[in-house]
User: Fold these one by one.
Assistant:
Number 1:
Amino acid sequence: MAIPIGKAAALTGVKVPTIRYYEDIGLLPPPDRTESNRRVYGDETIRRLGFIRHARSLGFDIDAIRILLDLQDDPGRSCSEVDRIVEARLEETRERIRSLKQLETEFERMLESCSHGIVADCRIIEALTPRIEH
């Protein structure tokens, strides 16, 4: 089925310029063209575009997605590389969660130290203001 780029964008939630970018960097194959030189996509490319979008939404970078797509194109290969990529992403996610928990603790500490009075006496403003020594 020949799907124009606008419909491909609507079906996958990927913006038209992003689809063109994915073509430019080789994540998507060059599209077929109509007689009027408009891009059209088949079902497989639409599935691939959906895969890319979902992987991006999970935080995978372009290089990891490229590898995952290459592995997907060779279904007989071991999935150990897929596991390695996902394990790395999982560790990045865990590190981000640790960092966010520290941030949460810092905000809680700031609020607990606040007297909820006037701004001139605000401990939060004081904590956020850098101390500059001359």
Number 2:
Amino acid sequence: MKKKIKIVVFLVLTVILLINIWVALLFMTKPPYYENFYGKTFRTAYSDTMLTLEEAIKDVDYFISEIKTYHPKPFLFMTEEAFDNKTDEMKIELSEKDEIKVGELFLKLSELAGMVDDSHTTVAPPVNSTECYLPFSIIYRGGKLYNISKKSSLPYKAEILSIDDIASEQLYDLIAKHSFTPLQSGTDRFVENKFRQYIPLEIGFKERYGVEYKINDRVYTKNVESLTSYSPKSLKQIDYYEFDFEGQSVPVLELNSFSNYGDMEKYNQTVSEFFEKYMDSETIIIDIRQNGGGSDDLGYSVFNHFANDTYKVIDNFTVAVNERVKAFYKFGYQFHLYQHRIPSAFWGLPLYGFFPEMEIPEKVLQTENGETLSIGEYVSENPIKAADRYKGKVYLLISGNTGSAGIDLASVFKYNFKNGAVIGQETKHPESFSGNISKYYLPYSGIAYYLPHSYSIAPGDKDLKRGVIPDYDKDRDSELEFVISELL
């Protein structure tokens, strides 16, 4: 008996010791470091910095080389010849100057990135010594621009005809050439979102702009004062509420971002609260109209609450493996362990088996540099028991602002889930797209740019050049009403 007691005491003390060691190791653990992690900035480009012609040309050549060398599918939406012709034109324009501002170079490089028409191939604007924004926002409808800023000196919903004698059609084109999607829906939303920032960049920073507008069939002109600062309206990452219309009510789960660098516990808690509260509701709505993306895991954690036991995530995944790619996936693997409170002392161990979602990072890190890793049909297993899943109808709202991981959720939803429908407008960019991004810097200007590492084909996607098409194409101002009045 005494021997058994000693063994039990020894085991208990051992467990306590191991727990203390684990806690101590966790206390010493810091987030993993990755120099090209796109959430941090390590160089700053300033718009007013002057570059010599030689420096500007070298940065252009460097950027072109990066796209051609590392982008997984650079010429999916254009020919290499068209791209080369554009870059030749750009170099000729640059050669007419002895020097060029970094801000001017940014506009040219951003236009080049726009030609690739890939949502994850972009160029970041440099810091301006004097910020300048238009004092109103717009929406684009039927080929026309309308003011939607109620606090502006312009009438609400006035049609914008021109700014400084530049017609609205030209204003649209000045911004659309920077759009990183081949789709009209996404380009229209891009113009809306970037209008007050990009028009001053294109036509020059000024204290005031002359605006010609029309209201009630009458044309007016007005000088409007520019702004030196502007903060876009911020949305909660996740929220839920009940939408009431014509005496009926439906629960709405609003998912405005899938960023996984916030409070993940709060996010998952809110998701669980929503489904627990409305488990017996006949219908729910999931709103990702403003969701530009982030981590797929956050979208699938919602989908699991009503999906089948298994569901297809992709038809094919490819990545050309090199040191850059391995650095990205190594960071992703370590960050996953960090989020699951695994001490950094164990990050060098192959713990992939404990996390099924780490299958792709595992295969990438085990593939030789210079080889192309291709993974066929990928099916995910639902970790939520069938008895605990929501059984009612689910309607998913999408728009031209829905991008990246938001599109992944919409694509997986439409392909795998039949007890509901997708409502809204075609997504920002195609449902098959390049992903897994890193941030880099041009050697002379310091301009930051983003490049993807992989390419995924969405389940059932044969076209490769269209976004997620809604089952019901409805105006974004009436989608919630449509669900209640027409589908319930």
Number 3:
Amino acid sequence: MTLWEAIARRAAKPAGPWLDAGCPVALGSLANASILGGRLETLRGRSVMVSTEHALTAALALIELDGVARRMVLCTPGLATEHLPQVVRDAQVDAWVTDATGGAPPPELGSISCLVAHRVPQPCEVDRRSEASATEWVLLTSGTTGGPKLVAHTLASLTAAFAQLPRLEQGAPIWSTFYDVRRYGGLQILLRALFFGSLLLPAGADESPGEFLGRAAAAGVTHISGTPSHWRKALMSGATGQLRPDYVRLSGEIADQAILDALRAAFPRAVVAHAFASTEAGVAFEVQDGLTGFPASLAGTSAEGVRIDVSRGTLRIQSPGNASRYLGEGAPPIKDAEGFVDLGDRLEMRGERWYFVGRSGGIINVGGLKVHPEEVEAVINSHPQVRMSLVKPRRNPITGTVVTAEVVLVDGETAESAENAEAHAKRVCREILQTCRERLAAHKVPALIRVVAALEVSASGKLVRRDA
């Protein structure tokens, strides 16, 4: 089944509109319309780069191309120009779909057919017959250095987790997400909305958290997702009080207890869930009990065919939602010899629960002793005056490296509530340091804590860790 067939077969419940700012689009209208102006057939059997400025245009292109193109490559916003030749070469791109402002392929990429798409569907006759083989969906990972990895999925693998969702999608949910739909987290929400006929309101590329949440509240959004960093910025905006969701989802980063508690306080009527997923592994599972980590009982094999292995100290996933491969000459295998995707998240058992302590590749070495930044951040974030933090290394002549931390404080503290802002910041830093000394080994305690106005968050909604 193609994406268009999934939309069209629900005649009794047509796909709801994409609630784009000022431009709602009823996706069911694609039965007799196209954003490609009758030129879809020219892309049949080809490897197509979807490179648009507007997320709506990209979403419509995916609906039209699935089952027609041999391969679709979702170009993420802000992909550096120097990485384009690698992406085009590894994905064997021979066609390019853009919009009026998305830009044509650079001349140095050679002769690539370019189609400029309309932003909204135009009436025309469209041949939507599908090919025998499934279209390959290629997503780009968002590494902090070097070029992106090209991860190959099919529509079947991208929607494998949906077998667990009917109860969640009862009623008429209005979905929204901080993610861009061209990234794995946002694409999951787009596909859920399409498969279940929900309305969808995505964040605008240049919207502040406050502006987005105001628009989401006005649209009556009931289900909303983002990374923990997205949600920390949203809480800092002071605009969360406008929203009355039924379901709030976190994914993409470790959800510590502080952010889970903050969201439960902000949205007392909502289910607050944190999901464990990656572009390569797909969706592993979701936890809704309000606690960080996950119950030990989840390890093993679920009814949906998801196998969760923790025997090696990291989270490994084998499921129908796994990606099939990386593209490109010399690319490493996605799965290990046992058929698992290793997420690289280090685990620690406490009682009957597994807790995430950090990423395998982000360890700070302090005199030969290992420190996971996320473990220290969880302790720092537990302070009631801390909204978010970033732990990173600093060179030291004795131990080689020491731990340091930057923290963003909760808004609302003023000179009237403390002698002055500087005195307040120093007091909070002393309290954080004392908490770290009580709860962490000595080598994990920050040697320096600095209060900052903001922390850098990547386009994918994650804290930027330049030292990882």
